[in-house]
Amino acid sequence: MTSRLLPLLIALVALPSLAEKADRTKPLVLTADKQGQIDSVNQRTELLGNVVITQGTLVLRAEKVDVRETRDGYHQAYANGTAGQPVSFRQARDIPGEAIEGTADQLEYDTKSETVRFLGNAKVRRTRGATVAEEVTGAVIVYNSRTEVFTLEGGSASPNPNGRTRIVLMPKAQPGDEPASAPAAAMPLQPSTTLTLPRKPS
């Protein structure tokens, strides 16, 4: 029996800056290894084989991608991975060295709302260099890069037992938390060259 969880909203705390703002003004670039199809009438493009979509710092990788242009000129991308290679997503944040990364069986990206929808075995994390600051896993994760709010849903497609959503928040380093250095080796005693012994009374 599949457990049903109510959607959960979580805003990453203490994150004053948003995802890279300049990305929204950059062109959407698509590349692929295999055949593609462009339907100009229906404003639709399909690509197969190691598909890579870039828009500024945003990078989306998938086996198959279907991109549709809306009437108001925005794009909606529907990406699918394979059994051994899920869809991956990465976008830098305005904070230098930080990024949002995620993987899922399927992914939907909407340039108008600036949202990414991770579907099936979804995992999204915020990284600081090579360190993971937060990690979220669940059946469905919707990430709004404009507000940096995650909408989380559980379900049978979750990688966790019973389809439960899982959130891991790493502790922040505090001043003085640097690992204590090893105590200095004891110095051998040396005879003083300046002290003089008091004279014995005669």
UniProtKB/TrEMBL annotation:
Matching Pfam families: LptD_N
Chief place where the protein resides: periplasm
Source organism per UniProt: Pelomonas dachongensis
Residues spanning the signal sequence: 1-19
Known partners and oligomeric status: Component of the lipopolysaccharide transport and assembly complex.
Entry protein name: Lipopolysaccharide export system protein LptA
Gene name, Swiss-Prot/TrEMBL: lptA
The family this protein is said to belong to: Belongs to the LptA family.
Compartment(s) of residence: Periplasm
Region (Disordered) residue spans: 172-202
Organic solvent tolerance-like N-terminal domain mapped to chain residues: 32-148
Function in brief: Involved in the assembly of lipopolysaccharide (LPS). Required for the translocation of LPS from the inner membrane to the outer membrane.
Keywords associated with the record: Periplasm, Signal, Transport
HAMAP family given in the database record: LPS_assembly_LptA
TM annotation in the entry: none
